[in-house]
Write a structure and sequence with these properties.
alpha/beta; 5-stranded parallel sheet; 7 helices; 10 strands
Amino acid sequence: MTEDWLDTLAAARETGEACVLVTIVEARGSTPRPAGTKMAVFPDRFAGSIGGGALEQKALETARRFLAEGRDLPSLREFPLGPALGQCCGGHCSLMFEPVTPPSRTLVLFGAGHVGRALVRVLDGTPLRVRWIDSREDEFPAAAPGTVAVTVTSIPEAEVAAAPAGALILVMTHSHDLDYRLVEAALERGTFGFLGLIGSATKRARFEKRLTARGLDSGRLTCPIGLPGVGGKHPAEIAISVAAQILSLPTDETARSGQAEAFDIP
């Protein structure tokens, strides 16, 4: 495949696909392509090319092995273009293999009002994929960040069932009745990592009474949301407080955070 690696990489980020970006970081002597040439490698396809032939085939095999092993650190590998690769160029290539993994968690955000829009802006650049849901198409900005998937639907409750297991769910719609239906649907499903509802302690008490009558565990609901003492009443301040709260939630990746290893040069 020869389509543009950059466009393919951007599309993969939106769909949550993992891949390995292969870059020729040094090309000495006679080589198929110059330094800086890249290709994006997926389990079943690739985009771009580092020159074809045995070098590219070996790079594809190496990248796909990294994907299968779940490697997440870059690796620099040396490839002499001689008999070992069945090539007679006589040059030498240094290839960097950089795993590109999708964000580790999904935030399902219900509501495209002032706070919802502010929260999406604050979360841009963080390791969260956001599924942003509202029935009002005009409330969404003209362009959303690459890690945000916008859904316009007249039945937002159906998106609770479609959320991935372990997703973080934030409810901040324009309707208290819709807020309740979404919270109820989430608690009935049960398989979420966090359930937050915008509102006051009074709103929580009202919801708790109805949820308890339905036999649902309102103890799993976080309301009000946001870190105590962080922010104020303005949408941006609320968004910062809520973002700090959800980003501080423990994940399976926490144990690996902050780790650093030298490039693997065999």
